[in-house]
């Protein structure tokens, strides 16, 4: 069950000699989610492999003929392919419904219900600013310009503010995105805005000093809260069905 940093060759070798079916995912940051998935499956017959990133996962997928005798289900984040489409060569991978597995968890757990009434308007203002920025980044990606989505909330919108930081705007060369793109992102932000950022926003609000009930949680702490909410079963029901279907297909070859 590799969880350290391994090369593509080492991970391919692990799969080649595995005696179990395997689930291959991207990074260690998402392990808390995928380990809960393994708990819902038969852990005695399914192993788990975190590659350390999407690029490595795709490289391993291209070499699947080298471990064709081992049933393997690959799960990956769509990332910006959510907007441009999945390349046909990767159609056999199980893709997240939204931008990332964190988006799928965010949607299924209804986390915004944890906000207090006096926070909802400010939360909406922050989301509006984030959606405007993210629409700009999507446009950059689709127009084959460099996009930069690995941005922290504190860098983009300083604490106590609800608008994009002016220095940040200048560094990114930000210009207002087309209204149509902004509306698309805003209407489906739970699935389309980078999930890590959505969790950062909620952590900021849930930890706020002016709350009646202050969570004092972290990004991963909020993961655990989300995973323990009964509604999160929606996410795992979909993944379990997709994984079992993919493994069954290979077991019957």
Helix content: 40-55%
Structural class estimated from helices and strands:
alpha/beta
Task: Provide the β-strand percentage band.
Answer: 5-15%
Mean pLDDT: 91
The domain tally reads 2
Query: Which ranges are low-confidence, i.e. pLDDT below 50, for 5 or more consecutive residues?
Result: none
What would the principal axes of the Cα set say about the shape?
A: globular
Question: Total strand count, please?
Answer: 4
Report on the biggest sheet: 4 strands, parallel
Number of helices: 13
Strand order of the largest sheet: 2-1-3-4
**N- to C-terminal distance:** 25 Å
Radius of gyration: 19 Å
What is the oligomer described by this structure? single chain
Elements, N to C (H/E): HEHEHEHEHHHHHHHHH
Key phrases:
2 domains; 253 residues; Rossmann fold; 4-stranded parallel beta sheet; alpha/beta
């Amino acid at each position: 069950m590799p969880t350290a940093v391994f090369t593509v060759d080492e991970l391919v070798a692990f799969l080649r000699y595995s005696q179990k079916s395997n689930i291959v995912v991207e990074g260690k940051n998402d392990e808390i989610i995928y380990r809960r998935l393994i708990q819902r499956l038969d852990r005695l017959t399914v192993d788990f492999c975190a590659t350390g990133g999407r690029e490595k996962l795709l490289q391993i997928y291209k070499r699947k003929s080298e471990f064709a005798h081992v049933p393997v289900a690959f799960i990956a984040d769509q990332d910006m392919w959510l907007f441009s489409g999945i390349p046909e060569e990767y159609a056999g991978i199980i893709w997240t419904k939204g931008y990332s597995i964190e988006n799928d968890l965010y949607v299924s757990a209804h986390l915004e219900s944890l906000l207090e009434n006096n926070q909802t308007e400010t939360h909406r203002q922050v989301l509006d600013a984030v959606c405007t920025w993210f629409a700009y980044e999507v446009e950059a990606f689709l127009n084959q310009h460099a996009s930069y989505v690995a941005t922290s909330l504190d860098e983009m919108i300083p604490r106590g503010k609800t608008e994009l930081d002016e220095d940040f705007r200048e560094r990114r060369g930000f210009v207002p995105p087309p209204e149509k793109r902004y509306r698309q992102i805003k209407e489906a932000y739970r699935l389309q805005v980078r999930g890590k950022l959505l969790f950062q926003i909620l952590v900021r609000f849930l930890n706020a000093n002016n709350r009646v009930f202050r969570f004092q949680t972290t990004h991963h702490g909020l993961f655990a809260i989300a995973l323990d909410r009964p509604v999160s079963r929606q996410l795992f029901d979909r993944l379990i069905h997709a994984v079992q279907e993919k493994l069954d297909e290979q077991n019957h070859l």
